[in-house]
Amino acid sequence: MTLVRGVLADPRTTARLVWDNRDLRRINLSLLGSTVGDGAYATALAVYTFQWGGAGALGAFVAIKLALKAATVPFGVAAVDRLPPKAVLVGLDAVRAGLVAGAALLVLSGGPPLLVLVVAGVTGVVGAPYRPVSAAMTPSLVTSPRELTAANAVGSTVESVAVVVGPALGGLLLAVTSIPVVFALDVLSFVWSAVLVLGLRSRGADPCPDPGSPAPGLAVDAMEGFRIVWSDRRLRLVTGLACLETVVAGAGAVYVVVVAVQLVHLGEPGVGYLSAALGVGAVVGGLVALGRAHRSTRATDFGTGLLLSTLPLLVVGLAPAAVVAFAAFFVLGLGNPLVDVT
Fold first, then answer.
1. Which PANTHER family match (predicted)?
2. What number is the average pLDDT over the span 122-131?
3. Among the residues of the chain, which ranges form H helices?
C-alpha cells in the first residue's frame, strides 16, 4: 500500500497543478475528448473496412493512411504554425467534425466503401497538426515554469491514455450499437473540443510568429525538425525507436480486429472487449508514467515501454487463446504511456 501511495503521490500533485489552472484544464479536456472520439472512430472504421475487404484491405488502408500522415504532417504543422493557434485548433475541430459526419452519412446510405475510406484518410491528415499546435500553445497558458512541467506531463499522459481508451470505447459501443453511432460520437467529441478551446485565455505571448519578421519558406520550416534530429545521434536513436513503436501501434489497429475475429474467435464484439483490456492497461500505465515523469529513469522507462508495447503481440501469435489475448492487450496498454510520457 505504501508503494502504491508513493507511485500516486506525484500524479496527484501534478494533476492538481493542471486542474487548478482553468485554461490548462480546458485544453487537456479538449485533447482528451477529441482523442477518445478519434480512437472510437478508428475502431469503428477498422471494423467497417474489415467487413468490406478483410484483413488485407484493412492493412492496406492503415498503411496508406500512416504514409500520408507521415508525408504531409511536417508541411501541415509548418503551415498552421504561421496562424493563431486557437483559431487553428477550432478550425481543425470544425473541419474534422464535418468530414466524419459526411462519412457517417455515407455509411448510413450505403455509399461506396472506397469513398468512406478516402474521407477517413483526409480526416486523419487534417487532424494530424492538432496535437503539435495544442502543445505549442500550452506555454502561453501557464503562470509558472512548474505549471509548464506539469502541463507537459499531464498532456502526454492524457494523450497516451486517450489513444487506447478511445478504441476501447469504440469497440464496446460497436458491441451494442452500430458503426454510424460511433462516427457520431466522434463528431460530438470535436464539438466538445472546439467549445473548450474557444474559451481559452492566453496569458503569455501568442506563439504565432511576428508578422513583421521574415518567415522561412514552408519547405525549410517543415524540414527543420528533421535536420535537428539527424544532427544528434541520441535524438536519432530515440526518434527511430519511437517510430518503430508507432509502426507496431499502427499494426495493432489491424491486429486487434484479426485477433478478435479470426485468431481467438470472439467475433466482432471481441474487438470491443480486447480494446477495453487495452484501455484499462493504458489507465494503469498512465498513472505509473505520470508518477515517474519527474524521476531520472526515463531511459529505463522508455525501453520498458517499448518492450511492453511490442512483445505481447508475439505472445498472442504463439499462444492464440482468449485469456492470453486479454492479458496481452492489457500489457500493450500498460506500455504505451511509458513510451509517450518519457
1. INTEGRAL MEMBRANE EFFLUX PROTEIN-RELATED (PTHR23513), MAJOR FACILITATOR SUPERFAMILY ASSOCIATED DOMAIN-CONTAINING PROTEIN (PTHR23513:SF6)
2. 88
3. 2-19, 22-80, 85-108, 113-127, 130-137, 145-176, 179-198, 218-230, 233-258, 269-292, 298-308, 311-318, 322-341
